[in-house]
Amino acid sequence: MANLKTKTELYLKANSKTWNRDKVSLQNNSDGNGDFISSWDYDIAQPTAEQLASYETAGNTIETNQAVSKNRRKEYPSMADQLDDIYHNGIDAWKATIKTTKDKYPKG
């Protein structure tokens, strides 16, 4: 399930706005009701629950791809090692090395 921040960012983007922590605050009172928008200072209407829900699928894709990118970054060789691989083994060998990680963590 996409988090509220991701869905709010998508709503803002769809309305030609960008996330600004001085204009929107999210809160969770630990009362079982989950996250909510506690303050809103944009020149567009605050999104309704239904509007935010419409960004669930896109939000899930974004969050999945962010996790994939994070996992890939952890497993890729350092830039120095990648350049050394290219120098000693050529581009095709380097591509094979990178492809192994990309295949392990495919984007959605």
Write up this protein.
The chain is mainly alpha-helical. The longest helix is centred in the middle third of the chain and has 20 residues. The protein is elongated. The mean pLDDT is 96.
Using brief descriptors, characterize the structure shown.
two-stranded antiparallel sheet, about 110 residues, mainly alpha, Phenylalanyl-tRNA Synthetase, Chain B, domain 1
General shape: elongated
Q: Report the strand count.
A: 2
Strand order of the largest sheet: 1-2
What percent of residues adopt helix (DSSP H or I)?
55-70%
Low-confidence stretches: none
The overall pLDDT average reads: 96
Secondary structure class reads mainly alpha
CATH C-level category of the domain at 1-56: Alpha Beta
Order of helices and strands: HEEHHHH
The main β sheet shows up as: 2 strands, antiparallel
How many distinct helices? Answer: 5
Ends distance: 15 Å
Question: What's the architecture of the domain at 1-56, going by CATH?
Answer: 2-Layer Sandwich
**CATH topology type of the domain at 1-56:** Phenylalanyl-tRNA Synthetase, Chain B, domain 1
Instruction: Give the percentage of residues in beta strands.
Output: 5-15%
How large is the radius of gyration?
20 Å
